[in-house]
Design brief:
The structure holds two protein chains of two kinds. Chain A is mainly beta. Chain A has strands spanning 3-7, 10-14, 19-26, 33-38, 45-50, 56-59, 62-66, 70-75, 84-91, 98-100, 104-109. In chain A, strands 2, 4, 5, 9, 10 and 11 form a six-stranded mixed sheet that branches. By secondary structure, chain B is mainly β. In chain B, 0% of the residues lie in helices and 49% in strands. Chain B contains no helices and eleven strands. In chain B, the strands form two sheets. In chain B, strands 2, 4, 5, 6, 9, 10 and 11 form a seven-stranded mixed sheet that branches. Chain B has a four-stranded antiparallel sheet with strand order 1-3-8-7, with no helix packed on it. The chains are: A mainly beta, B mainly beta. At the A-B interface, strand 5, strand 9 and strand 10 of A face strand 5 and strand 10 of B.
Chain lengths: 110, 114
C-alpha cells in the first residue's frame, strides 16, 4: 500500500534556529515527491516537486532534497512567518492522485 | 487566475441533515479533486473528475456521499444523513490535464456535525 510518513509530528524552533523535516515513502515507481505548506484554516499551497534522487529545490529559507527512500525539507534561519504545517505527498501507484503524509507542524518563536 | 473557490467556508449542521458544498476550480483546469482532512491528519483522497467524468472514488466515500461536476465546470459534494464522523475540512483542488502534479487547493469547507 502506498504510504507517506513524516517526522517529527511537531517542531518548535527559535527564530534563526535551522532544522530539517523528514518525509519517507513507500510507493512503486516514484514519479515525483511534492511538498506543500498549509496555514491554519486554509488549503495546502504548493512549494516544490522533486523527481529524481539527488535533486534539490530552493525557495527563500526552504530547501528540499530527495533520496531514493526519503525527502528532507531544510529550513535555514527560520522566521515566525515560516510557522505552518508542511505536508509531503507522492502520486499513488496508479499515478492518478496524491497520497499525503500527516504533516509536520512547525512553530517558529521570535 | 482567481484561484479555486469553495462555498461555504463553514457549515454547522445537525446529525441526519443533508449538506452540499460547491467548488469552482481554476477555469482552464480539467481535473478536479475532493479531499477530506481531519485535525492533525493530512488530506485524504475522496474522488476526482476529468472534465465531467468521475473517474475514481475512494473506499472512504460511503453511499451517503455523492459528487457531481456537470459540464466539467464547478463541482458539488453532497453528504446525506450526516453523522458526527463526517465532521472535517472538505478540500477541493484542481489541476491541468495530466493531473496530480501541482494541485491548486481551495480554502476548504469546514463541516461540523452536531
Amino acid at each position: 500500500e502506498d504510504q507517506v510518513t513524516q517526522s517529527p509530528e511537531a517542531l518548535r524552533l527559535q527564530e534563526g534556529e535551522s532544522s530539517s523535516l523528514n518525509c519517507s515513502y513507500t510507493v512503486s515507481g516514484l514519479r515525483g515527491l511534492f511538498w506543500y505548506r498549509q496555514d491554519p484554516g486554509k488549503g495546502p499551497e504548493f512549494l516544490f516537486t522533486l523527481y529524481s534522487a539527488g535533486e534539490e529545490k530552493e525557495k527563500e529559507r526552504l530547501k528540499a532534497t530527495l533520496t531514493k527512500k526519503e525527502s528532507f525539507l531544510h529550513i535555514t534561519a527560520p522566521k515566525p512567518e515560516d510557522s505552518a504545517t508542511y505536508l509531503c505527498a507522492v502520486p499513488n501507484t496508479g499515478f492518478q492522485k496524491l497520497v499525503f503524509g500527516t504533516g509536520t507542524r512547525l512553530l517558529v518563536s521570535p | 487566475d482567481t484561484g479555486v473557490s469553495q462555498d461555504p467556508r463553514h457549515k454547522i449542521t445537525k446529525r441526519g441533515q443533508n449538506v452540499t458544498f460547491r467548488c469552482d476550480p481554476i477555469s482552464e483546469h480539467n481535473r478536479l479533486y475532493w479531499y477530506r482532512q481531519t485535525l492533525g491528519q493530512g488530506p485524504e483522497f475522496l474522488t476526482y473528475f476529468q472534465n465531467e467524468a468521475q473517474l475514481e472514488k475512494s473506499r472512504l466515500l460511503s453511499d451517503r456521499f455523492s459528487a457531481e461536476r456537470p459540464k466539467g465546470s464547478f463541482s458539488t459534494l453532497e453528504i446525506q444523513r450526516t453523522e458526527q464522523g463526517d465532521s472535517a475540512m472538505y478540500l477541493c483542488a484542481s489541476s491541468l490535464d495530466g493531473g496530480y502534479e501541482k494541485l491548486f487547493f481551495g480554502s476548504g469547507t469546514q463541516l461540523s456535525v452536531l
